[in-house]
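# step 3/5: fold
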Amino acid sequence: MNSSLPKTVVLISGSGSNLQAIIDQANTGQIKANIVGVISNRPDAYGLERAKLAGIPACIVDHKAYDTREAFDAALAATIEQYEADILVLAGFMRILTSGFVQTYMGKMLNIHPSLLPKYTGLNTHQRAIDAKDSVHGVSVHFVTEELDGGPVILQAKVPIFPEDTADILAERVHEQEHRVYPLVLEWMSTGRLKMEKGTAWLDGQPLSQHGYANEDEEDIQ
């Protein structure tokens, strides 16, 4: 990983499959990124083991040890500052962050959400898409703002929904796309191509639309 790039800290709560995708692509040179730390709010998160195997410093800030969201977020922020983070990547981080925390890191914090935002904010997105009889589902990478899953979208990837799909089958299809798009967006951020200004995502000096970067041929995304 390139230590001359901005310092990235990844926040996790679970298995860390998106973390692994970022690590793998950074190690092989597919993307440019500098991951300096991994923080989990759950002591049993497997993503901590992924960080250890990759030689990345990792630590736990257990939300259960704090009486309020504000106290937890203050402890989380103090830990992030120890890593001198320039970029925060939420990768399956299952905590709703307080307004004060979000304001502190506004424009520096990325999240990935398993739906084609603004559709289906919150939880159970795969089943909700199936129940709505949608033909297309997907994933969105966006900047984090105070509105839950409401920050400006940077990049989306679509997947088909077939009649026989269950939520678990659809989730696997979406995960494949997550592992493509999240590392790419991190590289855009790390190399200075991506910014958030006045509530809008900008790539290469151009504002992105409500649905983020658009390219009819996703194989050409770079």
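# step 4/5: annotate
Residues 14 and 45 are 4 Å apart (CA to CA).
# step 5/5: archive (pending)
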